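Recap quiz, item 2
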Amino acid sequence: MTPAARLQAAIDVLTALETTAAPADRVLREYFRARRYAGSKDRAAVAERVFDCFRHAGSYAWRMNEASPRARVIASLLAEGADPADFFTGASYAPAALTKEEAAALAAPPRDPPLHVEGEFPAFLEPELTKAFGADLFAEMAAMQPRAPVGIRVNTLRTARETLVTALASEGFEATPTPHAATGLRLDGATTSKLSASGLFAAGHFEFQDEAAQICAALCDAKPGMRVLDYAAGAGGKALALAAAMNNKGEIVAHDIEAGRLAMIGPRAERAGVSIIRTTTSLPPVQYDLVLLDAPCSGTGTWRRQPELRVRFTPERLAQLVALQAKLIADASRFVAPGGRLVYATCSVLPCENDEHIAAFLGTHPEFAPVPVSDRETFFHASPRRTQTDGFFTAVLRRST
Ligand SMILES: C[S@@+](CC[C@H](N)C(=O)[O-])C[C@H]1O[C@@H](n2cnc3c(N)ncnc32)[C@H](O)[C@@H]1O
C-alpha cells in the first residue's frame, strides 16, 4: 500500500467504527481479512493511525473544526509535521484532494483549546475527572495517552515468577517483575499476539492481566478452602487469579448475566490447572466467605488500551452504568455471610462509579464497614500516573452480622 492508501484505509476503519460498538482492534482485523494484499507493515501503520486518531480525537477535531474521520486523519498528519496536501491528492487509492474548507482550517492559526480538548477527554466528564484528580487532572490525562505495556499474571499453580522470567527470556521476551503485585510481570516491548503464541501460554504458565487487576485480586485475600462468589465473573480473569491464590482448594462460583462470557472460563481453567470454578447464571440464596463484584463500568481506567472508549462514551451510558452498579452492589451484598467480605471493583477512575457508590451503600447497610487497603488509603485508587497501571478502583467491606 502507498502511504496515501494507508491514510484512506485509516479513514475507512474510523468510519466503520462510527456505526458499530465492536472494539477497534476487531474492526481492524476484519478490515484486513478482506484485504489480503496488505502486508504486516501496512496493517501496523493503519492501526497506529486509527488509535492515534482516537487518542487525540478532541484536539484533532478542534484543529480542523470538524470531528469526521477524514478531518482527524488530516490533523494527525499535521501533528507529525507532514503536509496533508502531499497525501490528500485524489490520485488512485489516495484520499480525495483537500476541500476549500479543509485547506482553510489548515491555514488558520491554532486556537487555544478548552480544558477537555487539551486533556483529550469527553467534555461531559470534566466535573467527574476534576473530582477524581483535582490539580493533577492534566498530568493524569497525559499519563493515559501512551500505549500500555503488556501485563501478565504468573500462574503460581504451574510455575514461579522467577522461573517464568527465565523461560520467557529463552523465547526472546524480556519480562520485569511488577512492583506491587507479587504475581505480575510487565513486558514493555512485547505484543499480546506474540506472547499468546508462546508454548508457555498454552501450558497455562500465565494469563494476560494488568497489574491493577492483580492487586485487586490480592486485596480479596482469598485463602485455600474458602467459599467464594465472583458475582460478575465474565470470562473469569479475576476468578482464575483467586483460584491460584486459593491454591486450587475450596470453591469459586463464577456468576454472570452472560452465559457466553462464562463459557470462556472452562478452557482457561483447564489450561491453568484450576478445577474449583463452577459457572452459573442463576444463584440460589447461599452465602459466601467472599463475594467479588467486578462491576460493568465505563472502562475509563483502560483508555491507554482502548482509546476508542474516549470517543464512544456518552452521558446516557454513564447514567445507565451508575444505576446498574448501585443495584448490583445491593444484590451482591446479600450473598455475603456474617464475618465475610464484599469486594467491589471497577476499571473506572470516576468517583460516581466508585467511592460514591460505596459511601451510599455504607449509609444504608450499617452491617458493612470498610477494611482499609493500606496504611495510607481506605480504598485502592489506581491510575497510569499514580501506580503505573491501568486505572482501577477496589473497596473491601466486611460484614459484621
Ligand atoms: C468488568 S466485567 C467482569 C470481568 C471479569 N471479572 C474478569 O476479571 O475478567 C463485568 C461483567 O458484568 C457482567 N454483568 C453485567 N450485568 C450483570 C448483571 N446484572 N448480573 C451479573 N453480571 C452482570 C457483564 O456480563 C460482564 O461480564
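Residues 232-238, 256-258, 261, 294, 296, 328 surround S-adenosylmethionine (CB under 6 Å).
Residues 150-208 form a domain with the Alpha-Beta Plaits fold (CATH 3.30.70.1170).
End of item.
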